[in-house]
Design a protein that fits this description.
One of its GO terms (molecular function) is hormone activity. The protein is mainly β and 134 residues long. It has 1 helix and 5 strands. It has one domain: Cystine-knot cytokines (Cystine Knot Cytokines, subunit B), CATH 2.10.90. It is elongated and about 65 Å long.
């Protein structure tokens, strides 16, 4: 085999794996309400992974709209609803959450995605935990 063929093959395998890293990924959401006795741990899928993007060196010459980077975001999703156990009758015991069916690389849509990761936000339970597998 020629060195050019081997390098081309390695590049193709590397780029192919890199491009495929935006996909549904397992994630656990912890949900609790002050009025309810339990915290609910919900197993779901979210979009996560790597997307190829280009960052221009000439940022001062381009419009801000041309500088947006691609993120791993939802292509198809559906919503499911879970019942939080141990809630009194006067409290709405339901929680709706997204489930990623398929993902794509694209601009972040703030209508259904959290485009900025907040600092100090935690994802854990402070009450006894119940598990909801979906």
């Amino acid at each position: 085999m020629s060195p050019f063929f081997v390098m081309s093959l390695l590049f193709g395998l590397t780029f192919g794996q890199t491009a495929a890293l935006c996909a549904p990924s397992e994630y656990t959401i912890h949900v609790e309400k002050r009025e309810c006795a339990y915290c609910l741990a919900i197993n779901t899928t979210i979009c996560a992974g790597f997307c190829m993007t280009r960052d221009s060196n000439g940022k001062k010459l381009l419009l801000k709209s041309a500088l947006s980077q691609n993120v791993c975001t939802y292509k198809e999703m559906l919503y499911r609803t879970a019942l939080i156990p141990g809630c009194p009758h006067h409290t709405v015991p339901y929680y709706s959450y997204p489930v990623a069916v398929s993902c794509k690389c694209g601009k972040c849509n703030t209508d259904y995605s959290d485009c900025v990761r907040e600092r100090g936000r935690t994802n854990y339970c402070t009450k006894p935990q119940k598990l909801c597998n979906v």
